[in-house]
Design goal:
10-stranded mixed sheet, about 350 residues, about 25% strand, two-stranded antiparallel ribbon, globular, alpha/beta, 11 helices
């Protein structure tokens, strides 16, 4: 593999990262600050081995996903402690953690913060934005509304640091969740002074949330897992690099996608990442159990595995895959089939699941 050739072909931005060093992190963890003002002055990339495994391997689901997500989140929480939750900030501001249901708790940032900051008081709030129509790999034309919220945990008369982990693709659900939190805080005489984002992130989502934060005088901190991606034509897929499958399916033309990433991270990913694959995947479906606000329900792991196989097969048919990249795709397909075999199908025929 020729890293320079890949950077040029897919338009990867490897020139806007500056590595930072903090005490207490694993030797394998790398933290980068993004020197790109359009995305905000406090945008960071958290590059961990656990995050790499999650992004590169859609066969990782359930308990293994939980384990790796917590491992990555602990490294992010340690970084956040240095950057945001200084001793002064913790003594003058209240911490509120906004759970964006159903998927976002799967990022495991809350237990990571509790482990990193033992004894700190963290209030919790809940909101569930939902796309009205079924929205797998299609957020281009979906209508979004709030179907559940509980902001009773927001304190009265406080200055607040709001934590809001989630997958930020278009930023639409993030905008809704942040604006609701702002409104509910104001009703209690409180002010959100800072918002902290964590998860897989795309450029459009970050820009939209920065606009919201700027309008309300809020400092935004973003901690992205491994890279900050471009967004595919379907407003859903977030790939490290590769061909936009949704665009090819619509127009029959090849459109390449890149991301903002450090060279060290790219070099770490290349031996495992399948070009064009969606890094978070269907994040809710990769989890076995999801909290809805009123109870728990299955995440639909089997469907995620089936759909991931279908996406990889379509990507392999698009012109441009090199032999070593196709070998990675075939290896992942083998692991996906093996993982799927451990789950009983909801229907007699797996093909009943729409792909």
């Amino acid at each position: 593999m020729d890293i320079e050739k890949i950077i040029e072909k897919y338009g990867l931005n490897v020139d806007n990262t500056v590595q930072l060093h903090f005490k207490g992190l694993k030797r394998s963890t790398r933290i980068f600050k993004i020197s790109k003002p359009a995305l905000g002055e406090n945008t960071y990339i958290v590059d961990t081995l656990a995050g790499k495994d999650i992004a590169c391997h859609p066969y990782i689901v359930g308990k293994e996903l939980d384990r790796l997500a917590l491992s990555a989140a602990i490294e992010a929480a340690k970084t956040i402690r240095h950057v945001v939750l200084t001793r002064e900030a913790r003594s003058t501001k209240s911490i509120v953690f906004e759970h964006v249901l159903r998927a976002a708790p799967g990022y495991k940032l809350l237990p990571a913060l509790k482990a990193t900051l033992p004894g700190s008081r963290i209030s919790e709030a809940f909101i569930r934005p939902k796309y009205i129509q079924k929205s797998y790999r299609d957020h281009a034309t979906q209508e979004l509304k709030t179907v559940y919220k509980d902001f009773s945990g927001i304190p009265h008369g406080k200055r607040i640091i709001l934590f809001k982990p989630d997958t930020e693709a278009t930023g639409a659900s993030g905008k809704l969740a942040l604006e609701e939190a702002i409104k509910e805080s104001e009703l209690k005489g409180s002010t959100i002074t800072d918002v902290v984002l964590y998860g897989f992130m795309a450029i459009p989502g970050l820009r939209l949330l920065k606009d919201v934060a700027d309008r309300h005088g809020i400092n935004m901190y973003a901690f992205a897992i491994s890279n900050i991606s471009e967004l595919a034509y379907n407003n859903y897929d977030m790939t490290l690099y590769g061909t936009d499958e949704s665009y090819f399916s619509k127009y029959g033309e090849v459109r390449n996608l890149g991301s903002i990433v450090d060279r060290k991270t790219l070099k770490r990913y290349l031996p495992e990442f399948i070009p064009g694959c969606d890094q978070p995947g269907d994040w809710s479906s990769r989890q076995e159990r999801l909290f809805t606000g009123r109870g728990y329900e299955s995440g639909g792991t089997k469907e995620h595995l089936i759909r991931s196989m279908a996406l990889i097969e379509r990507l392999r048919k698009i012109p441009g895959y090199e032999k070593w990249q196709d070998a990675l795709a075939q290896e992942e397909l083998t692991k996906l089939r093996l993982t799927l075999s451990k789950y009983s199908l909801p229907d007699d025929d797996a093909t009943a699941v729409s792909v």
